[in-house]
Structure formats: C-alpha cells, structure tokens
C-alpha cells in the first residue's frame, strides 16, 4: 500500500481543512503561527509580506528580526524530555495552552492572513486558541489551516498557500521540484530486495515512535519501520517492542530538537536495557539528526529529510550533499 504512494506522491492532493476564500489573491500582511508555514511562505517568495512569526521560526535567514507573535508558555530549554512530556500531558488534561500569543502585537500588525494549524497542540497554537484570539481582533483576518498528516497533504498545504496569495505558479513549481527529487530516490529504492529495519525515535524519555509523514519518508528512502504510524500521531512504544524489532538503523529524531540537542539527549540511550545488543548499535549505525529542520516541520525541507534518510539507510547508494550539521554518527 505504501509503495503505491511512490507513484502518486505530490499529485492528487487530499483536501485539507481550509478556512480561507480561494479567490483571494492579494494579501498584504501575513502572520505565521508555526515554523513550517513560515518556511513555505518564504519558499513562495512571500517573506516581505510576513510581518509576524513564532519564537521557533529560525529558517530561512531572511526572517531574522521579524516580530514574534507566539512564544512558549513553558521553559522547555531548561527541562528534561521526561519533564516536558509530563508537563505537556498535564496542561493538555487541564485544557491549558502550551503557547502564549501576544494579542496586543497581533492587533497592531493587523494581518490580512494568519497561517496556523489544528494538528498538534504541542507544535503550535491550535483551534480553540486561535478562535479565541481572533475574537479580540477588530479586523477579522483570513485563516489558512495547515494540518497535514502525510507527504501528500504537505504538498496540498503548499498549493493552498500559493492559491491564497497569488503564488499558485510558484507553488506548483516548488511541488514539482520536490516530486522530481523524491522520484530520483524512489526509482532506486523500489528495486531493492532488502530493506533494513529502521527505528526513528521521535522522543527518548519516554520512547515514542514516528508518525504522520515520517514513516513515508523512511519507506521512500528504502527502509522499513514497523513501529511507526503512517499518517497518525506518534505514540509511546514499549522498549521491549523496540528490542523485538531489532532495528538495523536507529535514528534519534526528537521532535523540535536540532542536532546539538539530539546528540545531547542520545547520551542517555546507553542506560536502556539491552541497548548494546541492538543490531544498529553493534553495527555502528545509530545516528542523531537535526529533527527540527528535516523531519518535524511539514514543509519543503521534508524532501531534504528524505534524501538524508536515504543516505543514512543506504550510504552505498546515496550521497549526502546537504548541511554538515544535518546528522551525526553516535558512538554509543
């Protein structure tokens, strides 16, 4: 079933939740509530119209210095992964937000279009928070909900934003370039008779598998991750299940972490029962990656992430010509 996606990737796009007039072609002021939307907007040449972003928006370079409308409500920089997991779960049970929206700044910016999501309460402000904030604005902006669960739907988000801002041609070209690069990978991997067992560890304490679009990226790259959840939320997995799966390639990809933080978190893995018995450890094929740039954000750079996975899973077939800070082989 997954293999069929190779042939229709970035083609027929599943409808996504959109709260915007498709006929709107002139957008003066855009505010982004999530980093992936910021990246898509800039890839479509809209950086000059992007007047507000989140504290997590760090790419591309031209957004540096733009007003920050959304910040974390938690000091996650000083918290362990287990503390983050526990506090996030508690706040979600209590119906409390993980983010703070600067309502006064948002009113001053008076955006024509807000880019947001309703996929993950942990990743950015979501449905109810956005609706409550909009009630405080004197001028009601258009809203574009970017809520993908798959690679196909990421392409749909790019197309939707292009259509909403008069950049439909640019969007189609961006999608086509990504499709061509992925097809280059798929043309090789679909012929493979052997697919290494892979485990993408989206969180370390507790252990989470990968979900949404990442399992598709692994399949395209020529691996198999039986613990992942295609098109669904990542979820906790028992360490015993990881041991039973016995991954030959283990990729530490904690959601929202750059390479430096991923490497730092990976140091705890040696304490996990049976760690040294995993085939990936014995063969020296445990990697930490810049998850923030290449996996966690559903935007154009998932193509780069798939190319990175292809190199890590099949280094004899695929070179990596991207960022030198994209991954690190771990000596654990």
Report a brief summary of the structure:
With 332 residues, the chain is α/β, with parallel strands linked by helices. It has 13 helices and 14 strands.
Which structural class best describes the helix and strand composition? alpha/beta
Can you tell me the CATH topology of the largest domain?
Rossmann fold
Fraction of residues in β-strands = 5-15%
**Shape descriptor:** globular
Q: Could you name the ranges where pLDDT drops below 50 across 5 or more consecutive residues?
A: 1-24, 120-127
Total separate domains = 2
- Distance from N terminus to C terminus (CA atoms, Å) equals 35 Å
User: Reading side by side through the largest sheet, how are the strands ordered?
Assistant: 4-3-2-1-5-6
CATH superfamily of the largest domain: Nitrogenase molybdenum iron protein domain
CATH class of the largest domain: Alpha Beta
Q: What would the average pLDDT be, to the nearest integer? A: 87
- Cα-atom Rg, whole angstroms? 20 Å
